[in-house]
Amino acid sequence: MSPRAPRMTETLYDYLLDTSLREHPVQKKLREATVGIPGAGMQISPDQGQFMALVARIIGARRAIEVGTFTGYSALAVALAMPEDGRIVCCDINAETTSIARRFWTEAGVADKIDLRIAPALKTLDALLAEDGPGNGAGTYDMMFIDADKTGYDSYYERGLQLLRAGGVMLIDNVLWGGSVADPKDHEASTEAIRALNLKVRDDKRVDMCLLTVGDGLSMVRKR
Hints:
Number of strands: 7
Order of helices and strands: HHHEHEHEHEHEHEE
């Protein structure tokens, strides 16, 4: 038994995908379409998408929120895992990249499950908190994924805890930030923001948590 995860070489990662990846054909097409566009590195890995889909199925997610959509791979993964009445609100500010997302969501037959809102994420999250009526507002969402501007992570986290129900799950991406969080010489604003949130989540008595070495680091948080 090893006390730590093995170093993820290209050979080992290829093995991981070859032996475990279950990917909808449209997901694969979307990944391939994203490779050549600016910012392609922002797309999550296919194994992370599969993990997110599994989490959605395990908790029976019907209402989800995503902060940072890019070309839509993560939203597609979660939407495919949701039941027919499932809905995911996607927050993004880029109409160009999300137009790619819309095309593939439609091709996969899940466009009616996805409510894309082009606006600053905090504006959308505050609007969700302000919604009235049964099943709306605080404490009514099952799942949230954060993968946007790092300096906004703390604000998204706090809004997310308000929106999630007890037992709801939040997934926070890029929490290892390419290893920069462990570099004491790196004081870039995004690095400092992620470091601060990682420590906050570790000590937050409102949640159960685990920082996973999936992708670029993924924190999994369960609201108590």
